[in-house]
Amino acid sequence: MKLDILTLFPAMFEGPLTESIIRRAVEKGLLDIRLHQIRDFATDRHKVVDDAPYGGGDGMVMKVEPIAACLEAVKVDRPEARVILTSPRGRLFDDAAARELAQEQEIVVICGRYEGVDERVRELFVDDEFSIGDFVLTGGELAAMVMIDAAARFIPGVLGSPGSAESDTFSDGLLEYPQYTRPAEFQGVAVPPVLLSGNHADVARWRRHKALEETLQTRPDLLEKAVLDRDDQRYIAELKEDACR
Ligand code: SAH
């Protein structure tokens, strides 16, 4: 996947893109990430990238011209790129959106700052606007990193074990079951015996039940959209009955 990021703070990407799994993905050529300093595309002597909002009000708004010029330069060798704007007003970025992005060959992400970007950026150039949650960040950089990280996990070859993205939380609409590793007992807390039993069917059933319990307890909203078979439904009914007692 070819990723072009438009930002006023390219140094922020140092770290998230240069460590661990994402670093390896870059080294393997699975991710090709280029950072573009929007300020380099301001044409005036002082390299101004923001201005006061029309109509008054607090803060500054990112000007349309430097972003437009930067996009134009990027699009020369990324003609097919899907252009994404980070914004708290956007569609909520979730597991489905991460999978969707992982299918793309070319993505451009625009990182806003201050009070956000001039609305004409959105009108003229943006294909999708994404929010990473119902809160306001100081800039789009962290949102871009979150989206890139989540999407990268679905690009074949990025994760060491290909199955792991599929067993993770949200892949089947449920939260993941609890995980344990050695030692078998720590500070008096033992690993559930079924996980040591070697009985794969029992382990699978226990994990499924735990996933259902976790989801019912913390995110009951997810159960409405999850794919549940008859056993799942029966187990949930039991859990609800127990809770009423
Ligand atoms: N005045 C704007 C907020 C601007 S925050 C408003 O009320 O909607 C500055 C920049 O941070 C935004 O332009 C956007 O790029 C980024 N940002 C803030 N919160 C975000 C979120 N939840 N998801 C994605 N990007 C966000």
TrEMBL record:
GO terms for biological process: methylation. Keywords: Cytoplasm, Methyltransferase, S-adenosyl-L-methionine, Transferase, tRNA processing. It is found in: Cytoplasm. NCBIfam families: PRK00026.1, trmD. PANTHER family: TRNA (GUANINE-N(1)-)-METHYLTRANSFERASE (PTHR46417). Specifically methylates guanosine-37 in various tRNAs. This is tRNA (guanine-N(1)-)-methyltransferase. It comes from Geobacter benzoatilyticus. The gene is trmD.
